[in-house]
Specification:
The structure holds two protein chains of two kinds.
Chain A: H1 3-34, H2 36-47, E1 48-53, E2 60-61, E3 67-79, H3 84-98, H4 102-114, E4 120-123, H5 128-136, E5 144-153, H6 161-164, E6 167-169, H7 172-177, E7 188-190, H8 193-197, H9 199-202, E8 207-213, E9 219-222, E10 237-238, H10 243-252, E11 259-265, E12 271-277, H11 291-299, H12 308-311, H13 320-331, E13 347-350, E14 353-356, H14 368-374, H15 377-387, H16 389-398, H17 422-428, H18 435-440, H19 451-462, E15 466-467, E16 484-485, H20 490-503, E17 518-527, E18 536-545, E19 552-558, H21 564-584, H22 594-600
Helix pairs in contact in A: 3-4, 10-21, 13-15, 14-20
Chain B: H1 2-6, H2 8-11, H3 13-32, H4 40-43, H5 45-63, H6 68-92, E1 106-108, E2 111-113, H7 115-132, H8 145-159, H9 164-180, H10 185-200, H11 204-220, H12 227-250, H13 253-263, H14 274-286, H15 297-300, H16 312-345, H17 349-373, H18 391-409
Antiparallel strand pairs in B: 1-2
Helix pairs in contact in B: 3-5, 3-16, 3-18, 5-18, 6-7, 6-8, 7-8, 7-9, 7-17, 8-9, 9-17, 10-11, 10-12, 11-12, 14-16, 16-17, 17-18
Classes of the chains: A alpha+beta, B mainly alpha.
């Protein structure tokens, strides 16, 4: 070839070289000079892994600062994100140490493959020896992240279980719903009780710290270049509850029987005790839930997880006569001194039916206080008839017998109470007869109430007719807004209380439950449970120093406990006495009621004191 | 005496440039071994590379003194031997390191080497010998049939390994040599058209436009081609257009992903896109001046894959920044310019053609290797000449440089 032709080929070859290498230089210039800051940022985020520092949940305390729920250090094991296959191989090697079953392994593998690039939580509560074993084998588990993570503890155990409730690990649905709050896998969330009610208060804000990792996810060191965010512990919650009182109730509650005790502070409506038997140990739920333990709790025929004080609905029986009395006084249907047209001869005929009193020989003619003392059915039949069904339901509903009290617990159930005359048509297919009011007046018929609701009603009787919503949290605002009040003259309320006072006096059904230092007022109840089993035993009472207004309202219900006076009344008396002795600086004693004094052979001279 | 022996190292700009790149390469391989969690595998590779560099320099000093006639004689036998060894490799070859699945290495007496590297030089020799026999430049497609067949044989054997990157180097040899042989550019384009058509077939519209342009080109060029050749080009393009879709469907998902992530690395950021994303991050975060020798975080923390072989250019980019990458490319540009000049000045057309063959190999390697680190070309396992770690590759590059010097300097 001639040199000129070679010359032109060489020029063209040089042009090709310059153009193509020029393209590379241009692209490099764009990446390294023009866009460098972006890539720099990415190289930093590449090697920095944000790690979540879980915030401890707020502590739950009782009124004296005694701890119902706090936190202890636990260990969580996670796998640092990276290539899915190496994450899965780490998971496989972890199996034997942490006892991961096949289903859980598949679940975790799927998340490793398609999940977001954040640490994959394998265990929130690894046993200490497993953690120690893993730490020793650190070199063969490069991707492993072992962190200290607060774990819930309930020092009060089963005594406070129903009030505090328990916690669990956040699930997928909640994770999505609470994304805005920064919810992350492994979060501990309240599942029931105060834990659930005040979840957003107790839940703190997770912090973040950065560590430098290599491509295999091995943590090379911590990184100070990006400021870490300190975790914010959840807010503590102080309850009105008296843990000592709860423990006392737990001690004196009849063994092997189920039921509930509710104690309210008359002044504030604060919940002093909210006890449900049988109970369970909430610590079972604190870490990784043992499926077997959970199964035992759920399948237990006595339903220990069931919070009887706020969820259990029982026919109120005689104690509801107090409600009938209150409704009648509010409406002005009766005055305390008035007697009923028909005196008690053991039965009462209304319409075409005969209604019986519990006492066959009859009570004779009684005024309000006497009728309460003797729980005379015939008196209250007539009172119901005079009030009339429409008004009975109207005021009964205003007092919230068909609704929840509004206590700060998510599981509270409302009572069953007809909302109006339409109830019978809907439920039974007929229009109610006036006789329905007669039945309702003595606490029978379509009426079921929770122990808490009965306690709230009693609060109104102990106060001035107003009943705030019972509150667990001490600072719970607006407790009164959810309540209701009756417009009854004070002296009329005193007649109801006088009737209740006579119940614990000589001749009263709960005489043997009267107390040396405190004036116990109450109403026994024996509600039919249906079937051949013993009746449910009620006692709704209040107590305070002699000659002073009541300071505490206590309601006890013992399922299939038999008679109210035999089982429930001593329980209420002992609960009130324990609390009031503490409050008034009187040394506590296990011998509290008149019956116990007699059994112990102690002097009962106080029973004849003039101030009683 | 000693001075004369080593004279080519500083007298010859091509050799001096190769030496500069190689020494820089040893330094980069050292840096590639400096990791946050040291790996016993990569830590001492720089020392082995330095030893290989010594052997390579010795090889060059021998090869550059061999007269041109010997190369001409050796062209055919070495080609036959090269193809033979490639065939043996297919049967007895082994993979290595991360390229475990590719049987491109052959072990002889404990020494492992890649026959394809030697085959490149042999093919360049044979192709140069073949085209040097011609009096006139190739003007018809049929003139390219024999050269194409000559290259296609080793190329096919390498593809079967399967090693796409090395195969592309053979393509580079072919086009560089027929270019220097004087083939007119439309002819080169027509020869390349089926490959282009295969790539463009991913979109029917793009392929249709391309096909219309190709047909127009053939029509305008009709007086300088045989009709049968035009028809062959058309049929060839139609054929690849037709097989493109079935071929694509026959690929495994991971193979498709490798090609797709070139268009969008975020498509599969944890697997196929990983290398590209991490390499881009490394190069981009290097900025103008880089993070400093051995201080690249992407590399230190092992985000950068194959940091001492295929992705060594990313280490250069991360640690020396734009200044480093452009300096390396400028050095290569200078090397290529000198080679073009040597080819132009060569007395024998065989010499010029061979130099272009080697130029084709190196240019392909540089463009693809540097290009893939920033996503200009898809990722194919292909090392950067003189800089990437690899004994036989370094040795063969230096032997090739020696042959270039020998042929350019023999004016007898």
């Amino acid at each position: 070839m001639n040199p000129r032709r070679l010359r032109s080929l060489a020029v063209r070859a040089r042009i090709v070289v310059v153009v193509l290498l020029g393209v590379l230089v241009a692209v490099l210039f764009r990446a390294q000079v023009l866009l460098s800051s972006e890539w720099l940022l990415q190289s930093r985020s590449n090697r920095l892994r944000p790690l979540t520092v879980p915030a401890p949940r707020g502590i739950i305390r009782d009124r004296a600062g005694r701890v119902l729920a706090d936190n202890v250090p636990g260990y969580s094991v996670s796998v640092v994100p990276g290539r899915p296959d190496s994450m899965i191989s780490t998971l496989r090697r972890l199996r034997e140490h942490l006892g991961i079953d096949d289903r859980r392994f598949e679940e975790l593998s799927a998340r490793a493959r398609s999940g977001p690039p954040r640490p994959l939580l394998v265990s929130v509560d690894a046993p200490f020896d497993a953690v120690a074993a893993l730490e020793e084998r650190r070199s063969i588990f490069p991707r492993l992240l072992i962190e200290s993570r607060p774990k819930r503890r309930y020092p009060a155990g089963e005594v406070g279980a129903h009030v505090t409730g328990y916690v669990g690990q956040i699930n997928e649905t909640e994770l999505e719903a609470r994304e805005d709050e920064g919810a992350e896998p492994g979060w501990t969330v309240g599942r029931s009780g105060v834990e659930a009610q005040y979840e957003s208060v107790l839940q703190g804000k997770s912090g973040t710290r950065y560590v430098e990792v290599n491509a295999e996810g091995r943590i090379v060191g911590s990184f100070a270049g990006v400021p870490s965010v300190t975790e914010q512990p959840g807010t503590d919650i102080d309850l009105n509850l008296d843990l000592e009182l709860m423990e006392w109730i737990h001690r004196v509650f009849p063994d092997s029987l189920n039921g509930s005790v509710v104690a309210l502070d008359v002044e504030t409506g604060g919940v002093l005790a909210l006890y449900s038997a049988p109970s369970f140990d909430p610590n079972v739920f604190a870490g990784v839930v043992d499926r077997a333990a959970w199964g035992r709790l759920v399948e237990d025929p006595d339903s220990p997880l069931f919070h009887r004080a706020v969820m259990g609905k029982y026919p109120p029986g005689s104690p509801w006569k107090l409600a009938t009395a209150a409704i009648a006084l509010e409406l002005g249907v009766v005055t305390p001194a008035r007697r009923m047209p028909v005196s008690c001869r053991g039965s009462y005929v209304f319409g075409s039916r005969t209604y019986h009193c519990w006492k066959e020989e009859g009570h004779g003619s009684l005024a309000l206080a006497g009728a309460i003392q003797h729980s005379c059915n015939v008196y209250f039949y007539q009172l119901g008839a005079q009030i009339g069904l429409r008004r009975l339901l109207e005021v009964g509903n205003r007092m919230g017998f068909g609704a929840r009290c509004g206590i700060d617990l998510p599981e509270e159930a409302g009572g069953n109470f007809p909302e109006g005359a339409g109830y019978w048509k809907r439920r039974f297919g007929y229009d109610p007869r006036e006789g329905e009011a007669v039945v309702l007046a003595i606490g029978q018929g379509p009426n079921d109430q929770t122990p808490l609701k009965m306690a709230q009603f009693l609060l109104a009787v102990a106060r001035d007719g107003s009943a705030p919503a019972p509150s667990l949290r001490r600072s719970a605002a607006g407790a009164n807004e959810e309540g209701w009040s009756l417009d009854i003259p004070k002296e009329h309320l005193e007649h109801i209380r006088e009737g209740m006072r006579r119940v614990t006096r000589q001749g009263g059904t709960a005489y043997r439950s009267s107390l040396e230092h405190f004036d116990l007022l109450g109403k026994t109840g024996t509600a039919q449970s249906g079937g051949d089993r013993p009746n449910h035993a009620w006692f709704t009472g209040m107590a305070g120093p002699y000659g002073a207004p009541p300071e505490i309202v206590v309601v006890a219900l013992v399922e299939f406990g038999g008679s109210g006076s035999g089982v429930a009344a001593p329980l209420v008396a002992k609960t009130a006495d324990f609390y009031l002795r503490g409050r008034h600086g009187i040394p506590r004693d296990t011998i509290q009621t008149l019956g116990e004094y007699e059994l112990a052979g102690r002097s009962t001279a106080w029973d004849r004191r003039p101030d009683r | 005496m000693i001075g004369t022996l080593f004279a080519p190292l500083w007298r010859q700009p091509v050799v001096a440039t190769a030496l500069a790149l190689s020494v820089f390469g040893v330094g980069m391989i050292y840096s590639a071994g400096v990791l946050e969690v040291p790996s016993p595998v990569t830590q001492d590779l720089w020392f082995r590379q330095a030893l290989f560099l010594g052997a390579s320099v010795a090889g060059l000093l021998v090869v550059c003194r061999i007269p041109l006639r010997w190369y001409q004689w050796a062209a055919l036998p070495s080609y036959v031997a090269g193809v033979g060894v490639l065939a043996v490799t297919l049967v007895a070859g082994t993979g290595t390191g991360t390229a475990e699945g590719i049987s491109s290495f052959l072990s002889v007496g404990g020494f492992r080497f890649q026959p394809a590297e030697a085959a490149k030089i042999a093919t360049a020799l044979a192709l140069a010998a073949l085209l040097a026999q011609r009096e006139d430049p190739p003007t018809y497609l049929r003139d390219l049939l024999a050269p194409a067949a000559l290259v296609a044989l080793p190329l096919a054997l390498v593809l079967l390994q399967p090693d796409l990157g090395t195969a592309l180097a053979f393509v580079g040899i072919f086009f560089a040599v027929i270019f220097w042989a004087g083939a007119p550019w439309p002819l080169i384009l027509f020869a390349a058209s089926p490959a282009l058509g295969l790539v463009l077939a991913f979109s029917r519209t793009v392929w249709a436009i391309y096909f219309v342009l190709l047909a127009t080109g053939l029509f305008l060029y009709r007086f300088r081609l045989y009709l049968v050749e035009s028809v062959a080009v058309i049929l060839g393009n139609v054929a690849v257009g037709a097989v493109a879709q079935p071929l694509w469907n026959s690929l495994a998902q991971y193979q498709r992903n490798r090609l797709l992530v070139f268009l969008d690395p975020e498509l599969d950021p944890r697997n196929a896109g990983w290398q590209l994303i991490q390499s881009k991050v490394a190069v981009g975060s290097g900025g103008l001046f880089g993070k400093g020798f051995t201080l690249g975080t992407q590399k230190r923390l092992a985000f950068l894959p194959e940091q001492h072989t295929d992705f060594i250019f990313s280490v250069v980019g991360e640690e020396f920044g734009f200044v480093g990458t452009s300096a390396v490319l400028i050095l290569f540009g200078y090397l290529f310019f000198r080679m073009i000049g040597m080819a132009e000045a060569a007395r024998h057309s065989f010499a010029g053609l061979f130099i272009f063959g080697i130029l084709g190999v190196w240019f392909t390697h540089v463009f693809i290797n540097a290009g893939m680190t920033v996503g200009v070309v898809p990722i194919t396992g292909i090392p950067l000449p003189f800089i990437s770690y690899g004994g036989s590759f370094l040795l063969m590059s230096w032997i090739a440089a020696g042959a270039v010097v020998a042929l350019a300097g023999d004016n007898s």
